[in-house]
Structures are given as C-alpha cells and as structure tokens.
Design a protein that fits this description.
With 290 residues, this protein is α/β, with parallel strands linked by helices. The chain has 14 helices and 5 strands. The protein folds into 2 domains: 76 residues, Winged helix-like DNA-binding domain superfamily/Winged helix DNA-binding domain (Arc Repressor Mutant, subunit A); 153 residues, 3-Layer(aba) Sandwich (Rossmann fold), CATH 3.40.50.10490. The chain is globular. GO terms for molecular function: carbohydrate derivative binding; DNA binding; DNA-binding transcription factor activity.
C-alpha cells in the first residue's frame, strides 16, 4: 500500500485549510506532497519543484502559505508528520513478508480496512462534527449524492436519515439517471443541505452537482478520503475516511462506518423518532423471523 499523508496530521490539516485558495501551481505542489510524503521528505527544494512540475520560487511561496518560514522548516514538519502518522512497522513488514495467496490477500485486505477505520476515527474533529449535526437537524431538505461505490453509502444514509429526521431526504441518484439528479439539485436553496460522497477515482458528476448546489446557496457536507479530494474546496464541512486498498481502486468500508455513525448520532438527538420506530417495530413483531 502506498503511503499518503494522513488527514490527521498537522501538515495535512494546514494544506486542507488553504487548498481551496491555492493557485494551480501551488495545488500541484500540494498534491505531490499529499500523495508522496515519503519521497518528498528526502527531496531538496529543487527536487520537489521538478517532480511537481513547478519551480523553486513556487515551492518557496507554497511552504510560506502553509505558515513555514522556509523549505527546511516545512521538511522538518513533514518528517515529524511521517514519524507520527505512518502505518505501524509490523503492518509494513506484513505487506512485504506475507506469501501471495488468496488467503493472505483476504487477511491483508481486512487489516487494511482496520487501518482505514482507525485513521477515520483519528481524523474526527468535534467542531466539524457539531456543525454537521446542526446542519443536518435544521435542514428543510437533505439531498444525497453518490455514484459508484459511493452509491451504496448514499443509499445507507438515505434509509437511515429518513427514519430519524423530519426533513425530506432525497437520494438524487437512486433512480432516473443524471438528468433527474440535476433537476433535483436545481431546486435546492439556502435552507437545504447536500450530502456529497465521492472516493477515488472521484465522480465528475458528484463534484459538478455539489458545485451546482453550492452556487444555489445550499450547505454542502462532504464525505471523502483526503484533503486533496475535489469535494473539499466546495464543501462547507468535510468528514475524511481513507479509502485505500492494495488491489482495488478504492474501498468504501470507512465511509460506510462514517455514514452509520452519522445516523446513530442523529438517532441519539431524536429520541421521539426512536420511540415511534420502537412502537412500530413492536406492532410488527409477527413479521419477524425471531
């Protein structure tokens, strides 16, 4: 598994804060650092400029935008981020030493998802969470966008939020194709919330719909994998869930966990809805297997 800079580190947080306002050249430098932190940590400023397709002057301005006095201070911060945030040494050793069999791949995949879950938990910020909860609870309507692997996460959120919120929850991608999704988003306004979900390789449709919703005044909550995601500069709030997988393009495991946690937190804030569902379930006991 290639190492990327975890969103829990101070350096990734700094990049995430300024990423929406970065120029194209600065973004190329940021993207290279986020996706190649190990390599960057050993590079000279000239090396980073060459590999990121920028210039030494651009790299110098980039690290100053991040709040560092110079490149040496930036590289020291990157080395510290790697020391604190790299995957455990034993997991790295496992990746090299385990024989390549179906069973070893199976076990390694589960370990990788456990690592993604641990990073997701570590990245949770209480301030962001509180803002997201407030927005979900006050929204008049909630529009959910997700395609590919994210479609299934979106469907889970649609079902869960519908149970516990008074708001009208609309899964824009559930049926009718992209044209219907666009019609839904064309109707959003300042009282609405759009929950956009996208993982690598990011869906252009999801990003475009999130932009449209933002332009129309809606609040945008994103579930994505890293500060370099194209959803980050659009969203008002972002939850990060790493989606790394050694063999597949991505894994939605951690994003599913985030979605499930969001529904659980909403249920906790709506005891009246929980009580009503309990009463309904008791009236339908005869339909259950046990």
């Amino acid at each position: 598994m290639s190492h990327v800079l975890k969103p829990t580190t101070d350096l990734a947080h700094r990049i995430g804060l300024v990423y929406p306002s970065l120029s194209g050249a600065h973004r190329r430098a940021a993207d290279f650092v986020l996706h190649n932190p190990l390599e960057t940590a050993t590079m000279t400023i000239e090396g980073l400029a060459e590999r990121s397709g920028t210039s030494t002057a651009t790299v110098t301005r980039f690290v100053r935008v991040l709040g560092f006095a110079g490149y040496s201070e930036f590289r020291a911060a990157l080395s510290e981020a790697l020391r604190l945030a790299m995957a455990p040494v034993d997991s790295l050793a496992d990746a090299h030493s385990t024989k390549s069999t179906a069973f070893s791949t199976f076990v390694t995949a589960i370990k990788d998802q456990a690592a993604n879950l641990n990073e997701t938990l570590a990245a949770i910020d209480e301030k962001t969470f509180s803002r997201a909860m407030e927005a979900l609870l006050r929204a008049r309507r909630i529009f959910i966008i997700g395609s590919g692997a994210s479609h299934h996460v979106a469907a889970h959120l649609d079902e869960g939020l519908t149970l516990y919120l008074d708001a009208n929850v609309i899964f824009t991608s559930s049926r009718g194709g992209p044209e219907k999704a666009i019609r839904h988003i064309m109707n959003v306004g300042p009282d609405d919330l759009v929950l956009a979900i996208s993982l690598p390789r990011y869906s252009r449709g999801t990003v475009d719909l999130a932009k449209l919703a933002k332009d129309r005044g809606a609040t945008v909550l994103a579930l994505t994998d890293a500060p370099s995601s194209p959803l980050v500069p659009i969203a008002d709030m972002t939850f990060f869930a790493p989606a790394r997988n050694r063999l597949l393009p991505n894994s939605p495991t951690a994003t599913f966990a985030l979605a499930d946690a969001i529904v659980a937190a909403i249920a906790r804030e709506r005891p009246d809805a929980v009580a009503a569902l309990k009463e309904l379930s008791e009236s339908l006991l005869w339909t259950f297997y046990q």
